[in-house]
Amino acid sequence: MGRPFVYLTSLVLVSSHNNSIIQKFHIQFPFLIINQMFSQPNSTDSSPSPPPETAQINVAAGEPPDENRNPTSSHDPSQTHLQIPITWPSDGVLTLDWVTTLMSIFDWSSRNLRPSELPTVLPVEVFDALVLTASKILHKEPNCVVIEPDKGEEVGSSVVVVGDVHGQLHDVLFLLKDSGLPCENRFFVFNGDYVDRGAWGLETFLLLLAWKVFMPHRVFLLRGNHESKYCTSVYGFEKEVLAKYGDNYRGKHVYRKCLGCFEGLPLASIIAGRVYTAHGGVFRNIPATPSKRAKGKKNRKVVLSAESVPLSLGSLEELSKARRTVLNPPWEGPNLIPGDVLWSDPSMKPGLSPNKERGIGLLWGPDCTEDFLKKFSLKLIIRSHEGPDAREKRPGLGGMDEGYTIDHVVPSGKLITVFSAPDYPQFQATEDRYKNKGAYIVLKSPNFDTPIFHSFEATIPRPKVNPYYDFEDVIDSDEELDLTKMAEPS
Ligand SMILES: [Mn+2]
């Protein structure tokens, strides 16, 4: 029984850089079986025995073949087998098995296939079904999702808050293993920036969408500033999608569907009534505007001069009313809230001011953190958005070596930045890397307002791939936006 297992393992490894052999292999064996790396809690291993014409592949194939391994053993969850290509369940209902299988397959394909071969494991029809199902759920969520972890039957829950991941698939897989997978009493809030810079933004975003579809009331995906047409056209995600699904109708379709899904992502969360999370941070109050304009006409001319009105903090009610379904968050005009929430940064200087470095969003001081926490009876703001590169240029604020910083400590509580992409960015022009750790935060029952920080190292070496953007020319952090390009109709 062990013989064909070992033999086929080496076949795939040999063929991973040779397209013709892979093709032959696919014709010979339309379904591949891969060992699953994510064990399932309480799994009784219900995986069906493979049909006789299928092949078996060991995911950990880089290791020397273990002659003593018994692939038919059903007691070790790591021996669960996976089938590719992935198929959408006939009843449209995702299971834990489906989601963990997707994670294992993405890990395997990132190591063994070329980017352009992704459609052979994830056909476009399955992509369509996943994104459509997720989009429907996301678009219905309010701008600020309200998470009540201890309401209902489950008590003693925890909430894991995750910062930027930027397409670093293997680090996300590690994080989910380290924190424990989402389940009835383990909630997840992702603060955005799933794509760009890293080479596996598509896989990363899709596996998070799969979790969202499987556990819509346990997994919450917020929008980051990179979930926009502008950022993805500059920092690699658009090119990544076209490299994987083809620079043709199919690839453009996949990219367009991702953008549509980005528009549906909510902007912020409130956890247990005590913690506010968002990608960038707080946002301004939008003064009542004279809204007399002809219906149906584009209102480009109606621009509120930011200079003419003193800036003040916006309320959660205003956040709930903002129009978030915009491809490029606005930096001018009547609805500046999404731009602020996604792009703002804290400062050590008191007050609220335009974020001139970024060209969009705000800078806010410790006094604003105090005002915001006090006004809404909160204890914590957890935001993301700044990696080691951004923090290098921000005197007065902490470095991102450990993946998190405590930025403001005020009478009502704290402001925290969490960044979950270790050894970031994946591609860097200089040899001298930041070597930062990533971190995630655990909030525990009953109060959910005492953050427990978990720092983690990168999963390296990463599979060798070419970058999808000109990382030597594109500036490190997202400063100095090309606003005219961002204004182009999308
Ligand atoms: Mn960001």
CATH architecture of the largest domain: 4-Layer Sandwich
Helix/strand/pairing category? alpha/beta
- Cα-to-Cα separation, first versus last residue: 56 Å
Total beta-strand segments: 17
CATH superfamily of the largest domain: Metallo-dependent phosphatases
Shape: globular
Main β-sheet description: 6 strands, mixed
Output the CATH class name of the largest domain. Alpha Beta
Q: Which residue ranges are poorly predicted, with pLDDT under 50 across at least 5 consecutive positions?
A: 1-31, 42-79
Alpha carbon gyration radius: 23 Å
| Strand ordering within the main sheet | 4-8-9-13-15-14
Could you say what the CATH topology of the largest domain is called?
Purple Acid Phosphatase, chain A, domain 2
Q: Which small-molecule species are bound to the chains here?
A: manganese (II) ion
EC number: 3.1.3.16
Cofactor: Mn(2+)
Biased composition (Polar residues): 70-82
Domain Serine/threonine specific protein phosphatases: 222-227
Explain what the structure shows.
Helix 3 (96-112) runs antiparallel to helix 7 (201-214) and helix 5 (124-140) packs across helix 7 (201-214). It contains 15 helices and 17 strands. It has 490 residues and is α/β, with parallel strands linked by helices. 31% of the residues lie in helices and 15% in strands. Strands 4-8-9-13-15-14 form a six-stranded mixed β-sheet. It has a five-stranded mixed β-sheet with strand order 7-6-5-16-17, with helices on one face. The chain folds into two domains: 1-122, no CATH class; 123-289 and 300-490, Purple Acid Phosphatase, chain A, domain 2, CATH 3.60.21. Mean pLDDT is 83; it is low at 1-31 and 42-79. Manganese (II) ion (MN) binds next to loops.
